[in-house]
Amino acid sequence: MAASPRRPATPQNDRRRILEASWLAAVFASTLLLLFFGCGKKSPSKTESRAGAHPPAARAKGTPRLAIIVDDLGSDRDAADSLLKLPFPLTISVLPHLPLSSAIAEEAHRRGDEVLLHLPMEADSPAAEPEAIELRVGMNAAQVESLLAGMLETVPHAAGVNNHQGSRATADPALMDALMPLLRERRLFFIDSRTTASTVASDTAERLGVRAASRKVFLDDTPSRVAILTQLDLAAADALRDGEAIAIGHPRPATISALAEGLPRIEARGVHLVFASALVH
Known about the structure:
The protein is α/β, with parallel strands linked by helices. Helices cover 42% and strands 17% of the residues. β1 (65-73), α3 (77-84) and β2 form a beta-alpha-beta unit. The protein is globular and about 50 Å long.
């Protein structure tokens, strides 16, 4: 095949060659930028993008770790917004079937916090007001599965479950035997809120292959800032002694204020704040 004739060297052809070379260089540079900065890009997590970020060293072996779970969310948007503004990794546990359950779970996930389903379960105390939809002693596996599936639909992004009330339910081996395989199938972990010393939930989870852990400290049984700060210090002491601890509180103004004040102090003691998922076994 005969070679194409070369264009004569004229000012017009020289300009054309310069423009073509510039265009090719621009395409090449754009491709490099996409390769270096576009591929594998992920949305920044709360710990990557906000003040008070926590480095990967927070998961270093042997480092004392503390997870803060705040539950009972789902009905108060102002409380949720105040909580989610805190620059710490928090585990947000949302009650199902409430007007704002889905919206708060979505917002917590968007801001980089971990979401749990705060699973309503039957209490043993006559003074405890039952939830309209809750797991109750005597339910069979099909009933438990139906209720769990419906609850999870209203709490998107749930990575695990912790019990709401449940002093009777978590002490019932048959009900826990029905629940735990359903969590395992969905790859959800279980945090035992330990609302009763008679609980068998954690033991059942371990026996049936569900990652689990238990609450060490309730933060706000006494709902005053000073009392909550004392409980935070107790949780930090547990983490320093045992290597890890889980504390549970509620989205009350005094609790949110105490977290904002006390968590930097806890970190200064060498305790790293982590999500609950980091402490399940």
